[in-house]
Write a structure and sequence with these properties.
The complex is a heterodimer. By secondary structure, chain A is mainly alpha-helical. Chain A has a domain of 44 residues: Histone, subunit A (Orthogonal Bundle), CATH 1.10.20. Chain A is built from 3 helices and 3 strands. Chain A has a two-stranded antiparallel sheet with strand order 2-3. The longest helix of chain A is centred in the first third of the chain and has 19 residues. Chain B is of the alpha+beta class. Chain B folds into 3 domains: 281 residues, no CATH class; 113 residues, no CATH class; 59 residues, Arc Repressor Mutant, subunit A. Helices cover 40% and strands 21% of the residues of chain B. Chain B contains 15 helices and 18 strands. In chain B, a hairpin with a 2-residue loop joins β10 and β11. In chain B, α13 runs antiparallel to α14. The termini of chain B are far apart. Classes of the chains: A mainly alpha, B alpha+beta. β3 of chain A pairs antiparallel with β11 of chain B, so a sheet runs across the interface. The site of zinc ion has 8 residues of chain B, from loops. Zinc ion binds next to loops of chain B.
Chain lengths: 97, 474
C-alpha cells in the first residue's frame, strides 16, 4: 500500500511536525516501506494456527492496589515547552467551534 | 404527531481504589495539579503499565450487582485519539472483549416499573483535566489513569424520567457494592446520552445525537428534555437530524454542535501489547459473589421480614444507600427499628429537605439521633419535646443530652409534681369534672389537654392519664 502525500501532511499536523516538500516525499517513502513490510504477513500460511489475543503466553499480570509517591511537580513539568500554574500549557483548543 | 424518544446511556464511574489503574499514583481528589503523576500516567517512553488487581475485583463486583455475565477472558485495547487530555494520544480501554457482558437493572419511573438492559461494562483509564485560559489550555494529569467503569445500556430508555431513575439506580448500586464513592461534585459519575426520536408506532430508530459528560442528574434530565424538543423541531421543519456530538450548555439550557460525524474520530482500536489478558476462574468469581455486600433488593426484604418495617418504609430507605446506612447506624445504638425508621424518614428528612442539603452533609450523627430516641424511650422526653431538640441538634450539631440539660427540658414523670398540677386543673374546671362523672368521656380529653398546657407539653401523657383517672374515680 502506498501512503499518499496528503496522509503524510495530515499525520505531520497531528504530530505537530513541520516538513518541507522534500522531507514529505522522504517520509512518504519511509512510511510506505513500513506498511509494505507489514504486507509480508499476507504471504505467511496461518492455516491450523489458533488466533491469540497476546503474543506472550501469560495472563493476569496484576499489581496490588497500593499508592506510592510519584514525581514532584517540578520533575513532571521538566520537559514541558510551556507551563503555567503547575500545569502543562498547550495551544488553544478549537473543539467548541 | 407524537414522537417517542429513544435513549441509550453510557455512564462513567471512577472506582474508589487507592491507586491508579496502571501505576501506583494516588487517586486522591483535590491535590495540587500534576502532583499525583509518574512516568507511566504521563505517557513517558519506555514505561510499562501493570493492571491494578482491585480494579478487576471492583469491575466484577459491579457486574454481578448489575446482573451481568462475567467474561472468563477479557483484554485491554488502545483507543487512539489526539487530544491533550491524553498524554499517550491513546486511552487504554476495552474494545471487543469487555470484562462484563449483558446485564440489566430494574427501575421505577412515573409509578411504572421498567427493566433496562445493559450492553456491557468495561474498565478503562480516565483522562486528564483541561482548563481553558485566554491564550491556551492548561493540563492537569492527576485524574489521568484513575480507573473508570463504563456502563453501557441498550437503547431501552424512553423518557427523561426513566433516564433519571436509571442513573440514580446505578449510583445507588455502585455505592452499595462499595466500588465507588459516586461523588457528583468531584466528577466521579458522568453521563453520556445517545438520543433519537421517532414517530410513535414507528419501529426504525431515527438519527441520534450524542451529548457527552453531563455531570449531574438535573443536567442529565434537562439536556434530554431540550434535545428531544430540538430534534422534533428539526423534523417538523422538514429537515434532517444530523448525527453529531452536541454539548449541553448548563447556564443557557441549550445544546450546540461540538463535532459532526464527518470528522469524527476514527479510534483505530488495537490490542494493548503492554498488558496481558485477564482470565477469571470460576473460583475467583464465586469468591467475589459470596462476599458481595448486601444489595438494595435483599436489604428491602430483610427490613420487612426481620425488622418488621412497612413495605413503603423499606423501599424508601433502601432507595438511597446513604439513607439506609444512616438508618442501620442508628440501630447500632438503639433497638426499635420501626421508631428509628420513622424518625429518620419523617422528622430528620423533613429537616434535611428544608435545609436543601444532602444527608451526608448534616451535623446530626446516627449515634446522636439514637441518643435522642433513647431519651424518649426512657420516658425523659415526650415525642413533641424531642422534635424540638432534634431541630436544635440539626442546626448546632450538639447532642441531645447536652441540649436537654442546658434548657432544663425533661418530661415530668415525677408523680408528686404532676399530682399538684392535676389537682389545680381539676379545681379550676369543676364543670368538666362533673361532665366526666356524668358519663361524658370526652371531658377527660379536655382535662388531659389542660394538664399538658400547664406543663407546656413536658408531662408524660401516660402518667397524666393514669393520675387523672384515679382522681376522677374518687
Ligand atoms: Zn502514575
Amino acid at each position: 500500500m502506498q501512503i499518499r502525500i496528503e496522509e503524510v501532511q495530515y499525520l505531520a499536523e497531528l504530530s505537530r511536525l513541520c516538513f518541507d516538500e522534500e522531507e514529505k516525499r522522504q517520509m512518504q517513502q519511509d512510511l510506505s516501506n513500513i506498511v509494505k513490510y507489514v504486507d509480508k504477513l499476507n504471504d505467511i500460511d496461518f492455516s491450523g494456527k489458533e488466533a491469540r489475543e497476546h503474543i506472550l503466553p501469560l495472563t493476569n499480570v496484576l499489581r496490588k492496589d497500593e499508592a506510592r509517591v510519584g514525581l514532584s511537580n517540578d520533575e513532571a513539568l521538566a520537559n514541558a515547552s510551556q507551563k503555567e500554574e503547575m500545569c502543562f500549557k498547550v495551544e488553544q483548543l478549537m473543539e467548541d467551534e | 404527531m407524537n414522537y417517542e424518544m429513544v435513549i441509550g446511556l453510557e455512564i462513567h464511574c471512577e472506582l474508589s481504589t487507592k491507586s491508579k489503574i496502571f501505576c501506583g499514583c494516588s487517586t486522591q481528589f483535590g491535590n495540587e495539579p500534576n502532583t499525583n503523576v509518574c512516568p507511566v500516567c504521563l505517557g513517558m517512553p519506555g514505561v510499562l503499565s501493570v493492571l491494578n488487581e482491585t480494579v478487576v475485583e471492583y469491575a466484577v463486583k459491579a457486574g454481578l450487582a448489575m446482573n451481568c455475565e462475567i467474561a472468563r477472558f477479557s483484554k485491554m485495547d488502545r483507543k487512539n485519539y489526539f487530544y491533550p487530555d491524553l498524554p499517550k494520544a491513546y486511552q487504554v480501554s476495552q474494545f471487543d472483549l469487555p470484562i462484563c457482558l449483558g446485564g440489566y437493572l430494574d427501575i421505577e419511573a412515573d409509578d411504572e416499573a421498567y427493566r433496562i438492559a445493559l450492553t456491557r461494562i468495561h474498565i478503562e483509564e480516565d483522562a486528564g483535566k483541561l482548563t481553558h485560559v485566554a491564550d491556551g489550555s492548561l493540563v492537569d494529569y492527576n485524574r489521568g489513569g484513575v480507573p473508570l467503569l463504563e456502563i453501557v445500556t441498550e437503547p431501552d430508555i424512553r423518557s427523561a424520567a426513566q433516564a433519571f431513575a436509571f442513573a440514580k439506580t446505578v449510583r445507588n448500586i455502585l455505592l452499595y457494592a462499595g466500588v465507588s464513592d459516586c461523588k457528583m461534585q468531584e466528577g466521579s459519575l458522568r453521563f453520556d446520552v445517545n438520543l433519537s426520536v421517532r414517530p410513535e408506532g414507528q419501529e426504525a430508530f431515527g438519527t441520534r445525537t450524542e451529548m457527552k459528560n453531563l455531570s449531574s442528574f438535573r443536567v442529565l434530565q434537562k439536556a434530554i428534555e431540550y434535545e428531544y424538543k430540538r430534534q422534533i423541531k428539526v423534523i417538523e421543519a422538514g429537515e434532517k437530524v444530523v448525527q453529531e456530538t452536541r454539548r449541553f450548555d448548563e447556564s443557557k439550557g441549550i445544546t450546540y454542535t461540538l463535532r459532526s460525524k464527518e470528522n469524527a474520530h476514527d479510534y483505530r482500536y488495537f490490542p494493548e501489547p503492554d498488558l496481558l489478558p485477564i482470565v477469571l476462574s470460576e473460583d475467583y468469581i464465586q469468591n467475589i459473589k459470596s462476599n458481595m455486600p448486601e444489595l438494595p433488593e435483599e436489604k428491602r426484604k430483610r427490613y420487612i421480614e426481620k425488622l418488621a418495617l412497612s413495605e413503603y418504609d423499606a423501599r424508601v430507605l433502601t432507595a438511597s444507600c446513604e439513607l439506609s446506612t444512616f438508618f442501620e447506624d442508628v440501630l447500632k445504638y438503639y433497638d426499635e427499628a420501626k421508631t428509628a425508621a420513622n424518625w429518620v424518614l419523617v422528622e430528620l428528612m423533613a429537616l434535611v429537605n428544608q435545609a436543601e442539603i444532602e444527608l451526608d452533609e448534616i451535623k446530626v450523627t446516627p449515634e446522636a439521633l439514637a441518643g435522642l430516641l433513647n431519651l424518649i424511650k426512657a420516658g425523659q422526653l415526650s415525642g413533641k419535646m424531642a422534635k424540638g431538640v432534634l431541630e436544635e441538634m440539626f442546626s448546632t450539631g450538639r447532642d441531645a443530652q447536652t441540649i436537654v440539660k442546658e434548657k432544663g427540658l425533661s418530661q415530668i414523670s415525677d408523680t408528686a409534681e404532676l399530682e399538684k398540677i392535676i389537682d389545680e386543673v381539676l379545681s379550676n374546671n369543676p364543670a368538666s369534672v362533673a361532665d366526666y362523672q356524668g358519663g361524658k368521656d370526652k371531658a377527660l380529653g379536655f382535662l388531659v389537654g389542660q394538664v399538658m398546657r400547664q406543663t407546656k407539653g413536658a408531662a408524660n401523657p401516660k402518667s397524666v392519664n393514669e393520675i387523672l383517672l384515679h382522681k376522677l374515680k374518687k
